[in-house]
Design goal:
About 45% of the residues lie in helices and about 15% in strands. It is of the alpha/beta class and about 425 residues long. The chain has three domains: about 80 residues, no CATH class; about 55 residues; about 250 residues, Rossmann fold (3-Layer(aba) Sandwich), CATH 3.40.50.300.
Length: about 425
Amino acid sequence: MELDLLKLLSTKDLYDKYSGHIKTDRLTSDIKDLFQGLDEYYVFTGAVDVLWSSFYTWYSSVKHPNISDAKAKILEAYCKKLDGMSGPNDHVLKAFLERDYSAQIADMCQDIVDGTGSAGMTDVSDLVESYKAEARVTDQFLEGENVSIDDIEEQLAEQADCQKFEWRLNELQISLGSIQQGDFIIVGARPDSGKTTFLASEVTFFASQLEPGQCILWLNNEEMLSRVKGRQVQAALGWKYSETRKDLAVTKAEFVKALGGPGRLVTYDNSSMTISDVDRAVARYKPSMIIIDQLWKLGGYEKESTSEIDRFARIANHLRSLAKEVGPVIVTSQLDGSADGEKWPGMNTIYNSKTAVQGEADAIIMIGIDLGTSVVHRYIKAPKNKLPFGQHKYRNAAWIVDIDAEHARYISATPIPRNPAP
């Protein structure tokens, strides 16, 4: 099985996808040595595929020129066997995931039985959820690799029949078009630029398009829950805060009416939210759309990650998987200081992400603000837009809209006709 694992990692794209899942302490010594040499080999040679006889020459002559004859013979035999093996066994990865998580869970359970350490059953549950998340990503990748030409017609039909949601802002409906299951969208802006107001303005409009029995799950780990709920009510009704306070019973009834019915917008509040909390909330509420405010504060994958950037990328990949399973996922993220006061900040300014998070998104909406001019203006652009239903010539257009903070709405300023949902 270990040789199957190395064969799986014999191409750089699969190595990049899978190597982070491999736990070296579970490998035998010789296989561990070969595995740990792969990363440097890809960097040193620039290769996209591994010819294992060439790898052995590089390993024994360049990386470890003083390797013992006995060790060299063992590794050479392994490399010859790898060159003679057929294509990679993709399912090896899942077997390694099961092995590693089972060992972690067994160790943790033994600590609980012995009364040592600080772990509890919640930690065991978190491990199980982490395994499910990683296994889900793996399964989706394997399924995606095995799509045949006979499946294309069925998949195109599924896309056409999939539930669509229109944006409230004309500008976004023109550029991005309607959104659907599978879409993972990041909204980036500097602090206090109106991210939560943007979400409230759009999400309450999305909620009015739900079918009976459906809901949108809004996961809040940023502002006080009362403020978030208040902005949701204002955005749905187009009312000022003072108007929402006149008669709370009337406000509640009108809010439910504006959303199209009760239970359509569920807000889950947890300031220390993790990706496991997200999964549990999704399992409980079974939403048709997921909203997260804020992405950068979401916990999870701390143990598996090599850096904070890597952790952030894993979370984005997890959320992309949820979008495929559940429905559109829209998240907000802070921008770094280089975006301060910029009308059209670049997507490279997304906080603590380099390019990994951007690569997971289907669309990235950037919101800018020019503090030297009127603070009611917001500058919106989608520098990344892979969504299929927008008007092509406007897909990366730059728009100027207004923010009406009193009514928690973004106001369209564009007379160009909207794209109706397909």
